[in-house]
Design goal:
Distance between the termini: 27 Å
Order of helices and strands: EHEHEEHEEHEHEHEEEHEHH
Bound molecules: NADP nicotinamide-adenine-dinucleotide phosphate
Number of strands: 12
Oligomer: single chain
Strand content: 15-25%
Strand order of the largest sheet: 2-1-3-5-6-4
Radius of gyration: 19 Å
Shape: globular
Number of helices: 9
Length: 289
């Protein structure tokens, strides 16, 4: 890292909590590797303080910041502009401050698409993708998959009405992709047999829970399984799929890739490919050792 000086530019992350965020480690490693005079710092911001925090960040002249739980939606009303990625995803995880104007981006979706390619060799296009979940992560993923030219998406969610709502919204934005919603208990009948990719966007598995309503044996040969969870690195879903010979990937690659895109938004420079993921793996292996 550069020695801090009067010229050092500031990046950061706002959220609550941010104590366990892995972004400062991976962003500072990339900034140092690229020889950029920036520092990336965590800011714990409660919902009551969001207004004051955004005004403060603007007044202090930061270059940009990440936004995490619980502010990804609330931040939108404070911004001057939204990139298409944020508008479609209905959430912002990256803000660029330039000439006093704040622009919101959503780099989770493009991070997901990059991770599918890098970690699973999966390129969106023809075929059916089954998504479990209809929350913020699902919304960003569906929008990015549609933009990447996916032919068909099947949405499954515990609260069926949320899946229906998400499908309707995305169909109106991306009419070229066929998007349908099914109740969670119909997943095994809902074209799982023709899926080329199954994606878990829910939090089921973070505490070792199984996704017991999915019959992985229904997936056709060659189908792949992606779990957005990265802590733990291997969820029961991934363990069970791998035991059946199915190719799998966890969400660590997505976390790194969304960080790479944010880094480019702020600095105009593409960080060294794979560096952020190596930092994350080192931290995760240390904490699970
Ligand atoms: P969210 O908006 O709160 O949505 C949570 C989703 O999980 C909803 O669809 C919810 O269904 C479903 N769900 C939760 N508990 C469930 C249960 N017991 N049974 C069935 N469904 C359940 O959260 P989010 O922001 O989308 O995040 C979801 C996950 O994605 C988290 O694990 C997060 O860590 C991960 N994520 C990873 C990355 C990455 O970079 N790798 C980025 C973003 C998010 P209902 O609608 O019925 O409540």
């Amino acid at each position: 890292m550069y020695a801090l000086s009067g010229a050092t530019r500031i990046l950061g992350i706002i959220g609550n909590p941010v104590r366990h965020s892995l972004s400062p480690a991976m962003q500072n490693a990339a900034l140092a590797e690229c020889g950029l005079d920036y520092i990336y710092v965590p800011f714990a911001v409660t919902p009551e303080c969001l207004d004051a925090a955004v005004s403060g960040l603007r007044a202090l002249g930061v270059t940009g910041f990440n936004v995490t739980i619980p502010h990804k939606t609330a931040i939108m009303s404070y911004l001057d502009r939204l990139d298409e990625s944020a508008e479609a995803a209905g959430a912002v995880n990256t803000v660029l401050v330039k000439d006093g104007l704040m622009t919101g981006y959503n780099t989770d979706g493009s991070g997901f698409i990059s991770s599918l390619a890098d970690d699973l060799g999966f390129v969106a296009g023809k075929g059916t993708i089954v998504i479990i979940g209809a929350g913020g992560a699902a919304r960003g993923a569906v929008a990015a998959l549609c933009r990447a030219g996916t032919e068909r998406i099947v949405l499954i969610n515990r609260t069926f009405s949320r899946a229906v709502e998400l499908a309707e919204d995305m169909r109106s934005r991306y009419p070229e992709t066929g998007i349908v919603a099914y109740p969670q208990d119909q997943i095994n009948e809902c074209r799982l047999g023709s899926a080329s990719l199954l994606v878990n966007t829910t939090s089921i598995g973070m505490n070792g829970e199984r996704i017991d309503f999915v019959d992985l044996a229904k997936l056709p040969k060659g189908a792949k399984v992606y779990d957005m969870i990265y802590s733990p690195l291997q969820t029961p879903l991934l363990r069970e799929a791998a035991a059946m010979g199915i190719e799998t990937a966890n969400g660590l690659g997505m976390l790194a890739a969304q960080g790479e895109v944010a880094f480019s938004v702020w600095t105009g420079i593409v960080p060294p490919k794979g560096l952020m993921k190596r930092v994350l793996l080192r931290i995760c292996n240390l904490t699970t050792a």
